[in-house]
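Try it yourself: sequence plus zinc ion, in.
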Amino acid sequence: MRQTINNWLKNNQLLNFDVFTRTLLKQNCLLCASPQANGHALCGACLADLPRHPATSCPQCGLASDSNLCGSCISSPPDFDATAAVFLYAYPIDTMMQRYKYGCMLNLSQTFGQLLSDKILLESVDLVIPMPMHPARIKERGFNQAHEIAKVLTKNHAEKLDYKSVIRQKLTPPQASLPLKERVKNIKGAFKANGDFSGKRIAIIDDVMTTGASLNELAKTLKKAGASHVECWVIARTLPH
Ligand SMILES: [Zn+2]
Ligand SMILES: [Zn+2]
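Structure, out:
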């Protein structure tokens, strides 16, 4: 499937990606196969059953807390200022995210983007930046999953979407393959911001937030380039067991 889509993309560079996902990947509910999905990847009943990120969580890092800042954010605050997540990274979201990322279930980006837009306030930021992927990885996968979600999120405010000013200059091993403490080292210096973000309020979009090492490094890069406020807007957040 992935190979087919990659070949298809190579031959159809000019066709709008959204049209592609809507027309060619239309399907029944991904989880229960019900035909009631109305062009979405999931039907209403399955959507309602998915594990939601709890409303009571640390506003800065999204980990469990009584809605106040958690101890870790008080003692060593991350470089980002806030976190919004739609789901907990638990079954079956974990399987779905894997399929989305590696199996090309691209119509999930519509569903994910819409769910995320219910969770955030687009007006509260100046720019929306999808987690940049190294060009070699985009070539390999055919798309950047964070960019696809960001496109849905900014559908009516395309001027806020900035996917060019920050690049991933280091081709690093996938974070998921590394032990937690290696992740910070792995991602250090991975991003380069071209441009002045002075005083800008920025939301970074990513599919999954695990340790937050990549998001933190990107936030650090953006703050160094002048950003005044950086939020993480993610589809799923892992919580330690
Ligand atoms: Zn269903
Ligand atoms: Zn926290």
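One thing you can check immediately is this: Residues 1-24 have pLDDT under 50 and may be disordered.
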